[in-house]
Design a protein that fits this description.
Chain C: InterPro entries: AAA+_ATPase, ABC_carbohydrate_import_ATPase, ABC_transporter-like_ATP-bd, ABC_transporter-like_CS, P-loop_NTPase. The complex is a heterotrimer of chains A (330), B (338) and C (504). By secondary structure, chain A is an all-alpha fold. Chain A has helices at residues 3-25, 32-57, 65-80, 87-111, 116-134, 150-153, 164-182, 184-194, 196-201, 206-232, 243-253, 265-284, 290-315; strands spanning 137-138, 141-142, 158-159, 162-163. Chain A has one domain: Orthogonal Bundle (ABC transporter involved in vitamin B12 uptake, BtuC), CATH 1.10.3470.10. Chain C folds into 3 domains: 3-240, 3-Layer(aba) Sandwich (Rossmann fold); 253-331 and 417-504, P-loop containing nucleotide triphosphate hydrolases (Rossmann fold, 3-Layer(aba) Sandwich); 341-413, no CATH class. The chains are: A mainly alpha (330), B mainly alpha (338), C alpha/beta (504).
């Protein structure tokens, strides 16, 4: 049994256990309506986690996704007030905002050579700050304004009983699974996360892979934001407050090892679902929302500690011993 | 050009440049900045950042980071306020609150240290997670409400009294704390070991340094500093709750990078941390005077962090001759052996 | 031998680094389907030759022929296209990927942007079958042992149609059974006509594998031996060359029996098996042996930096602690092998690096006495002639020799009872080398125990009063200074007893 399987089993089990508990203790859990709502609510964090999975598998981290969600959401909200603008264009603008933010991250990391967490932590501040700049204000106070553009809010609705955002989430998961497993790009992402130096020597364009990961991540964040804004018909500046953290937690639960090289899109999907299940449980049992933060934090710590220990136990002795070299002291 | 880069690569060069820029901007736009009363309010504000930055310094010198300082400050602030309130604002309640708060900080610091050393989890992952855990705990304990402090006793004095009727208490505490940290870093064996561990942990182990212990103690010091900051903040605001000191990790991190500290560890000192805190205080004050809404502080902080770290990175890479060698085809230059 | 019989022929290759000739007219011929061994002491120039063949370095003079035709190899890609591949010492595999993906990384087959996994698997399968490897194309590399990982590296080379595979000390991180597996792999490669250039320090591997052997010394090749000509005596004689008859009749050093380090029955992982020895004050005890024979681990166990699984270590009858800190206080010191990685803190100043291990003396109640610290550093800088003599300068900015003086000075200033040195003069120029020997000798004369691990045979035989040679995780032979010759030590390191030493 290898790490990959164990981690998949853990993430599936976690989701199943929660689902079973809820289905037995609350009457309405398995209702079609409840499930439809569950999959809608999971989609924001879920889609961002899908994007973040590229960065994480490639050995990086993106702490700016929350900021990207907020700023993209506000761009959408602003644009939707232009009379006669088609919803698709608003959606596109949201995604493009995400892409631009992702590009900036990519430049900071691959060209300016900043440490990823510093770069994305700071750029996250910038993006959420930008959102403040473009937020609706009344008398200087930030106000959320109801969106009335029907062609845009249509995106937040359902087709065939399933929310658009859920459909997008599932399709995105399938596409990303294909990209990760079936394309050279995906293979190179794993290679980079697994052993960046060797990847470079094998002809992998590390900067391109890393940069693309950030762009994909940004695009996903923008996309998710647009759909959520369309559904809620409003874009508060708190839209993406803790999304970065939740997305990372989702990835970690889903079996993506921080440090890179392991995990896949299905894992990120399951992780997103898990995050929402926890939240649902908290609401159902009328627990303080505080438990959500405590649980997520604890999960990140526990699972990451597990990964570290597991690898140590398994590969600790097998690591190649350093070999001394004394020649060619130039 | 070379001289300019050399100047900007030097920490004092950077500090001076930033100060000059600020002075010019303020001279042009808002002369109120130069009033003595404004300076004293800046000093009051930076005493909080300063205490927390001095603590964070220990961790940054080891190449680590602590993103949970804001949550920890909220935690101690709430513990102190609740303890004082429930005891009817007696001195005993105050002391119990302080001790409980510090104990909680020590506990969190130990958790950080253990996870970072023995489990080898990156510091920012650990502290990002504990930031939310601690925040959740504070929410739970306070029920999400602010605890109001409605007594002008000893708790009030902590943040609002003036020494000799002139120097505000927070500044006194800050100065004492900064001196203490400077002494620990500069004059003690622990300080020497901290710098050694930050610069080369393996070599440090071989000269008998218990590196894991050093790291652990540093995280505890950082937690305690955040806690002290939180308590003063509670007293200054006369209330404490989950969002007390919210976003302070951004302020402290900004202080670290504009103070010229290398986030990779091994170099820097209290002067840098204090200068960083001072700059953050000045910048925040500047934004207020210029009439920029407080919502924009995170934006400005983000830009400043990126600019400062990029500049550091550029000058250090430049001095190592790395900037020009970057070509489209790097593989050829990678040596075969380590 | 004529060039046109050879797969690869090098003629008169010269290379200089900063004006210092590293290779002086090297010739090398490798026939098709031949396992050709390359031997030589450290610094003989083997790695440089490989780097020139594989296009990492450009040669200053000389010519390379492939299949008898002159070939220009300017970069790694050139070498690869001509069928030359290297198996690196540190493997360059991706643990998270499977065998097929590892083999094809960077040169994936794809159609419409999608990778053709099945086709790639099929090709890897075909290669595996052709060479009879014991591998599954779908297995994840992370779950494999070192020997299998090496096979994946070899597969990677074969998939690029490699005709010559260069292996540089491939057994350094393998266990005995894994080594045997590798040898079987090499045999099957030879049968299929793939040539192998095999670099190793281990004579027994050379006998087992090589069809021919080229021996290098000081940047020249000193001869080619065919399979039947390879004998330990001949090879060592060629590697060492004409041994200078030095004055072995120097005055017998006084042994301070009162200062005694005893090690009994030490076991550590699979690297040390029942090692025992006694070192005395007043003498420099040299420890020789090949890389991987357990020398470094031995002195690390003594120092407390590695935890032996069994065994006793005692200094003057008192058991030695397993904590580095306590041992330092008890008078131990270690100069590690990897100077930059383990020896000093590059960003810290000379004075703080010097004082790093001595705060038990330079501080009271946890507070450093600045006066004592400065005096300590100033004295050390003066005594050991560290240049430039500026206390505040970061050690990272010094030359290699001066860095080593700082590392050594840190201990010498403490007058340690036991000083353990691991390759103390590696990468240090000749002048500084002799200074370092002088300091070591002075310390020994004052009654301290000095233990020196070294791969430099000349250094070992000249400086040590007594030499213990390790082989396969235990001491193999002991030499007194008077009888130690470089060739005898080298033979002992390869598991050959000689008349000069005493078998252990």
């Amino acid at each position: 049994m290898n790490t990959k399987n164990i981690r998949r089993i853990i993430s599936v089990l976690l989701v199943l256990i929660l689902a079973v508990i809820f289905s037995f203790t609350t009457r309405s859990f398995l209702d079609a309506r409840n499930l439809v709502e569950l999959f809608r609510e999971s989609a924001l964090v879920g889609i961002v986690a899908l994007g973040a999975s590229f960065v994480i598998i490639g050995g990086g981290i993106d702490l700016s996704t929350g900021g990207i969600v907020t700023v993209s959401g506000l761009v959408c909200a602003r644009l939707s007030f232009i009379p006669g603008i088609p919803g698709a264009l608003v959606l596109l603008a949201g995604v493009l905002t995400g892409v631009v933010c992702g590009l900036l991250n990519a430049v900071l990391v691959t060209r300016v050579h900043l440490t990823e967490f510093v770069a994305t932590l700071a750029s996250g501040f910038v993006y959420s700050g930008l959102a403040m700049l473009i937020a609706f204000r009344e008398g200087g106070i930030i106000q959320s304004r109801a969106i009335t553009n029907a062609s845009f809010t249509f995106l937040g609705g359902k087709i065939g009983g399933i929310y658009n955002i859920t459909a997008v989430w599932v399709v995105l998961m399938i596409v990303m699974m294909l990209v990760l497993t079936k394309t050279t790009f995906g293979l190179h992402t794993y290679a980079q996360g697994s052993n960046a130096r060797s990847a470079l020597m094998s002809g992998v364009n590390n900067d391109f892979i890393k940069g693309s990961g950030f762009v994909i991540c940004g695009a996903c964040a923008g996309l998710a934001a647009a759909f959520v804004v369309a559904k809620n018909a409003a874009a508060p500046v708190t839209l993406g407050s803790d999304v970065a953290f939740e997305a990372i937690a989702a990835c970690v639960v889903g079996g993506l090892v921080l440090g890179g090289g392991r995990g896949d899109a299905v894992g990120a999907f399951l992780g997103g679902l898990f995050m929402q299940l926890i939240l649902n449980g908290i609401y159902k049992y009328n627990l303080p929302i505080a438990y959500q933060w405590i649980l997520m934090g604890a999960i990140i710590v526990l699972v990451t500690a597990f990964d570290a220990q597991f690898n140590k136990l398994r590969f600790g002795q097998k690591k190649p011993r350093p070999v001394e070299r004394k020649e060619a002291v130039v | 050009m070379k001289k300019v880069i050399g100047f900007l690569g030097n920490p004092w060069g950077q500090r001076l440049t930033i100060l000059v820029i600020i002075a010019v901007v303020m001279a042009v736009f808002q002369q109120n900045f130069f009033r003595p009363s404004n300076f004293s309010s800046i000093l009051l504000a930076i005493s909080l950042y300063g205490i927390m930055a001095c603590g964070m310094l220990f961790v940054v010198l080891l190449g680590g980071i602590d993103l949970s300082v804001g949550s920890m400050a909220a935690m101690t602030a709430s513990i102190l306020a609740m303890s004082a309130q429930s005891s009817g604002y007696t001195a005993a309640g105050f002391i119990t609150g302080v001790l409980l708060g510090l104990a909680a900080c020590v506990a969190v610091g130990i958790v950080h240290g253990v996870l970072v050393t023995y489990f080898a989890i990156p510091a920012f992952v650990v502290t990002l997670a504990t930031k939310y855990i601690v925040y959740g705990l504070v929410l739970l304990v306070t029920g999400g409400h602010f605890v109001q402090i409605i007594d002008k006793g000893i708790l009030y004095q902590l943040g609002n009294a003036r020494l000799f009727g002139a120097i505000p208490m927070p500044e006194v505490i800050f100065i004492l704390y900064a001196v203490l940290c400077a002494v620990i870093l500069g004059k003690t064996v622990f300080g020497r070991r901290l710098y050694a561990t930050g610069g080369n942990p393996v070599a440090s182990k071989l000269v008998g340094v218990k590196t894991n212990g050093t790291v652990l103690v540093s995280y505890v010091i950082c937690s305690i500093s955040a806690g002290i900051g939180g308590m003063i903040l509670a007293s200054m605001n006369m209330q404490a709750g989950p969002t007390t000191a919210g976003g302070y990790e951004g302020n402290v991190l900004t202080a670290m990078v504009v103070g010229g500290l290398n986030l990779a560890g091994g170099e820097g000192g209290v002067v840098g941390a204090i200068f960083g805190a001072l700059l953050v205080g000045i910048i925040n004050n500047m934004l207020i005077l210029l009439g920029v809404p407080s919502d924009y502080t995170t934006f400005v902080q983000g830009v400043i962090i990126i600019a400062a770290v990029s500049l550091n990175m550029y000058t250090s890479r430049r001095s190592q001759g790395l900037t020009r060698r970057r070509t489209k085809k790097p593989p050829e230059k990678i040596p075969v052996t380590r | 031998m004529a060039e046109n019989n050879s797969l690869l022929a090098c003629r008169g290759i010269c290379k200089q680094f900063g004006g210092i000739p590293v290779l002086k007219s090297v010739d090398l011929d490798i026939g098709p389907g031949e396992v050709h061994a390359l031997m030589g002491e450290n610094g003989a120039g083997k790695s440089t030759v490989i780097k020139i063949i594989t296009g990492v370095y450009a040669m200053d003079e000389g010519q390379i022929f492939i299949d008898g035709a002159p070939a220009a190899i300017a970069c790694r890609q050139d070498a690869r296209e001509r069928g030359i591949s290297v198996i690196y010492q540190e493997l360059s595999l991706f643990p998270a990927l499977d065998v097929t993906e590892n083999v094809f990384i960077g040169q994936e087959l794809s159609r419409y942007g999608l990778t053709r996994k099945k086709e790639m698997r099929r090709r890897v399968r075909a290669l595996i079958d052709k060479y009879g490897f014991d591998l599954d194309p779908a297995a994840v590399v992370g779950s494999m042992g070192m020997a299998q990982r090496q096979m994946v590296e070899i597969l990677k080379a074969l998939s690029m149609d490699a005709r010559l595979i260069i292996m540089d000390e491939p057994t350094a991180s393998l266990s005995a059974s894994e080594t045997e597996k590798l040898f079987e792999t090499i045999d099957s490669l030879r049968k299929k006509g793939t040539s192998i250039l095999y670099i190793s320090h281990r004579l027994e591997e050379i006998y087992r594998l090589a069809d021919r052997l080229t021996v290098m010394r000081d940047g020249e090749n000193v001869g080619v031996l065919t399979r039947d000509e390879i004998t330990p005596q001949k090879v060592t004689a060629m590697m060492i060359g004409h041994e200078l008859k030095e004055d072995k009749n120097r005055e017998r050093r006084h042994r301070f029996e009162g200062n005694r380090l005893e090690v009994k029955g030490l076991w550590y992982k699979d690297l040390l098996r029942d090692v025992s020895f006694t070192a005395y004050g007043g003498e420099i005890l040299g420890i020789g042996g090949l890389v991987g024979s357990g020398r470094t681990e031995l002195i690390r166990c003594v120092y407390g930096a590695a935890r032996p699984s069994r065994g006793e270590i005692a200094l003057n009858g008192r058991p030695v602690s397993r904590s580095v800190g306590k041992n330092i206080k008890a008078g131990f010191g270690l100069v590690p092998e990897d100077r930059r990685g383990e020896g000093f803190v590059p960003l810290l100043s000379i004075e703080k690096n010097l004082a790093a291990a001595s705060y038990d003396r330079l501080a009271s109640f946890g507070f450093v006495s600045r006066k004592k610290e400065v005096a300590f550093a100033t004295e050390a800088i003066r005594s050991y002639d560290i240049r430039p003599p500026v206390r505040q300068l970061p050690v990272g900015n010094l030359s290699g020799g001066n860095q080593q003086k700082v590392v050594l000075g840190r201990w010498l200033s403490r007058k340690p009872r036991v000083l353990l040195l691991d390759e103390p003069t590696a990468g240090v120029d000749v002048g500084v080398k002799h200074e370092l020997y002088h300091y070591m000798r002075a310390l020994a004369l004052s009654g301290s125990i000095v233990v020196m691990v070294s791969s430099d045979l000349e250094e070992l035989t000249r400086v040590s009063d007594r030499i213990l040679v390790m082989y396969g995780g235990r001491f193999f032979e002991e030499f007194e200074h008077e009888k130690a010759t470089q060739s005898a030590v080298l033979l002992a390191a390869s598991g050959q007893h000689t008349g000069e030493g005493a078998a252990l």
